[in-house]
Amino acid sequence: MLDKLENVEQRFETVNELLCNPDIVADMEQYKKLMQELKHLTPIVEKFREYKKCKEAFDEAKSLLDAGGMDKDFRDMVQDEYEQSRTQLEVLFEELKILLLPRDTNDDKNVIIEIRGGAGGDEASLFAGSLFRMYSMYSEAKGFKCEVLNANETEVGGFKEVSFEVSGEGAYSRFKFESGVHRVQRVPETESQGRIHTSTVTVAVLPEAEEVDVEIKTVDLQIDTYRSSGAGGQHVNTTDSAIRITHIPTGTVVECQDERSQHKNKEKAMKILRSRILEAENQKRSDAIAGERKSQVGTGDRSERIRTYNFPQGRVSDHRIGLTLYRIEAIMNGDLEEIIDALITADTAEKLKADE
């Protein structure tokens, strides 16, 4: 591991030198790429330098203790230094192990989230709306920008489905463990007997794909226009502004009817289509790797039940990591930090275990 860290430090120095080169500075694309690399290398190098400094203090204290011939007070002081630096070295070593774990290349990307009502009819569509509100409020608290790409509203005020983009540095890293089935247990407003109903909502989280990430040929697309339907503004059902794009080779179908403009709907639909195709390609690649180590936190499978929101008990339980919190109101108002941090910590622990 120390050899690897020496190589990282060497690369850090090389990148710094390259960034001082006028030719590199003039090439905006290469400059941005190197700046991004520097950003990832910096915390590792800073921690490694802290480790080396601590190792020097440890070696010096050990050398003095081995040599002996000190008076009691000085020896006690050196012994304290030896113990402290040894403990600190262990902590720094573990931190470096985490920093050296392979990064998810999508972590810094924007993210597209698709929420669909599952079993439970109106109640499922209402909860889809609740999850959309929860994620929107969390995004706002993190300083991310949230933009609806497509929404299919229901008469009762929920969503059959809603797709939206969350933009901001590290957006995917914060949302990537939200993929799967979210189950809600509560008494619907229409329930006169006070019985608890169980409904489900499916969430899919896709890293946003750039045009360079996925090549989509125009000849492979079937584009249909139609009139918007469902609950909406005055423009609904007046023009053929809604867009349906079918990617013929994969059979992927994307619809978008959120904007008045056909051009804007097409732009948003293409954004979703690219991300879905990229996700499918990444999944194929992962499945092809023999003996791939999957995180126990969850595979991101949309059919996997990941979390239950029990309103009568005020409880939210994440089934992948056995976490239960009794503050459902705060969570539904976007206070997701504790859950997301716990999922990231559990995923890191699994990767470390697999790396041993």
Element layout with pairings:
Elements: H1 2-18, H2 22-26, H3 28-67, H4 72-99, E1 111-117, H5 121-142, E2 145-153, E3 159-167, H6 171-175, E4 180-186, E5 197-207, E6 221-226, E7 242-247, E8 252-256, H7 262-288, E9 305-310, E10 315-318, E11 323-325, H8 328-332, H9 337-355
Parallel strand pairs: 4-9
Antiparallel strand pairs: 1-3, 1-5, 2-3, 4-5, 6-7, 7-8, 9-10, 10-11
Helix pairs in contact: 1-3, 3-4
Number of helical segments? 9
- Give the low-pLDDT segments: 231-237, 289-296
- Order of strands in the sheet with most strands: 2-3-1-5-4-9-10-11
Q: Summarize the main sheet.
A: 8 strands, mixed
What's the CATH topology label of the largest domain?
Answer: Alpha-Beta Plaits
Total number of domains: 3
- The pLDDT mean sits at 84
- Rounded to an integer, what's the Rg over CA atoms? 26 Å
Shape: flat
Can you offer a commentary on this structure?
It is a single chain. The chain is α+β, with helices and mostly antiparallel strands. The chain has 3 domains: 2-99; 111-209 and 302-355, 2-Layer Sandwich (Alpha-Beta Plaits); 218-288, Double Stranded RNA Binding Domain. Helix content is 47%, strand content 21%. The chain has helices spanning 2-18, 22-26, 28-67, 72-99, 121-142, 171-175, 262-288, 328-332, 337-355, and strands at 111-117, 145-153, 159-167, 180-186, 197-207, 221-226, 242-247, 252-256, 305-310, 315-318, 323-325. A hairpin with a 5-residue loop joins strand 2 and strand 3. Helix 1 (2-18) packs across helix 3 and helix 3 runs antiparallel to helix 4. The longest helix is centred in the first third of the chain and has 40 residues, at 28-67. 26% of the residues are buried. The model is unreliable at 231-237 and 289-296 (pLDDT under 50).
